[in-house]
C-alpha cells in the first residue's frame, strides 16, 4: 500500500504553501510579460487603439490583477534571493563564505536598479 | 532518572497488515515521562499493551536511521521526538509517506536501495584501484570539508517523506541518493563523475527537483540534500555549456 502526500500536499504545511505560491507566481509574471509585449505592439498602432489598450489595463479588474502580480513578483524575488546560498557553495581558504555575502549583493543590486528606473520614470514624467 | 507525572498521553497509531483492505488507527494511552521520546512510548505499547505492533528501531540515539515515522504529520526520528513537544496530545504516529507500507509502521525501502545503488555511492578510480588496500589517496582538510556535510546521511529517509516530488514520481531518484552522488562527485579521491553523470542528469535525476527544500528542513543530520541537488544542477548546467561551446575540453 503506497501512501503519498496527495494532490493537496501544498495545503499541509506553511513551508509547502510558500513554495506553491512562489511557483504559482510565475503564471502571473508570464501574463504580465504578454501584456507588456502587447503594449509594445499597440504603441505602433493608431493612437485610438493604443488608448483603448491603456484603458483596458486601467480597468478595476486589471488593476487588481496588477497588484496581485507585483505581490507575487516581490514574493518570488525575496524568496529566490534568499535561496542562493544553498545553490552556490563558494569556498575561500577552504571555508565556505557566509550566505549573507551572496544574498546582500542581490538585494543591493535590486535596490539600485529599482532606484534607477524610478528616477528615469520621474525624469521622463517631469520632462 | 525518568520523572513520572500523573498524566497519560493518547497515541493514535497507524495499523495495517498485508491482508487488510484498509489501514486503521488504534488508540493507546501511555503514561507521560518527561524524558521519554515517541520510540519509548512505542516500546511501552509493545511491551505492556499490544505485542503485535510492528516498527523498526535499533540505536535509540539518532545514528542508525531506522526509526523514522510521521509524528503528527511530520517526518521525525521517533528516538528524537520528545513527548513533551506534543503535549497534551494526542500524538498520531504513521509510517513514512511516499513508501509502500509493509505492516504497521514498517515501510519497504527496496525502491530507495535501487536508486541509491544507481548513483554508485562509493569511490570510483579510473585505474580500478579501489581494491588496492596499499594505495594512499591523500586529502587535505579543506578538500574534505567540501563534501563532509553531504557524507553525514544516515539513510533515515525522512527527506523522501518530506518531498512532494517523491510523492508524485516514484521514479525520482530523490534527495538522499542525489546528495550522496554529489558527496562522491565532490570527493577529490573519486574519479567517477562521468559514470554517475547519466543517472544524475536524466529526467528523474536532479532536474526533477523543484527546490521545495523541505528535505533539508527535516534532515536530522543537517545534510542539506536540497543544497546538494541545486549545486549539482549548477555543475550540470556549466558542464552542458562547456560540452556545447568547448567540446575539445571533454574527455571522450
Task: Walk me through this protein's architecture.
The complex is a heterodimer of chains A (about 130) and B (about 250). Chain A has helices at about 15-45, 45-55, 60-85, 100-125, and strands spanning about 1-5, 90, 95. The longest helix of chain A has 30 residues, at about 15-45. Chain A has a single domain (about 10-125), classed as 3 helical TM bundles of succinate and fumarate reductases (Up-down Bundle), CATH 1.20.1300.10. Chain A contains four helices and three strands; from the N terminus they run βαααββα. Chain B is of the alpha+beta class. Chain B starts with a strand and ends in a 7-residue tail after the last helix. The radius of gyration of chain B is 21 Å and the shape is elongated. The model of chain B has no long low-confidence stretch (mean pLDDT about 90). Chain B has nine helices and seven strands; from the N terminus they run ββαβββββαααααααα. Chain B folds into two domains: about 5-105, Beta-grasp domain (Ubiquitin-like (UB roll)); about 110-250, Fumarate Reductase Iron-sulfur Protein, Chain B, domain 2, CATH 1.10.1060. Chains A and B meet through strand 1, helix 1, helix 3 and strand 3 of A and strand 6, helix 3, helix 5, helix 8 and helix 9 of B. Strand 1 (about 1-5) of chain A pairs antiparallel with strand 6 (about 100-105) of chain B.
Number of domains of chain A: 1
CATH class of chain A: Mainly Alpha
- Name of the level-1 CATH class of the largest domain in chain B: Mainly Alpha
CATH topology of the largest domain in chain B: Fumarate Reductase Iron-sulfur Protein, Chain B, domain 2
**Tally of helical segments of chain A:** 4
Task: State the domain count of chain B.
Answer: 2
> Strand portion of chain B, in percent?
15-25%
Helix and strand run of chain B: EEHEEEEEHHHHHHHH
CATH topology of chain A: 3 helical TM bundles of succinate and fumarate reductases
Structural class of chain A: mainly alpha
Distance between the termini of chain A: 70 Å
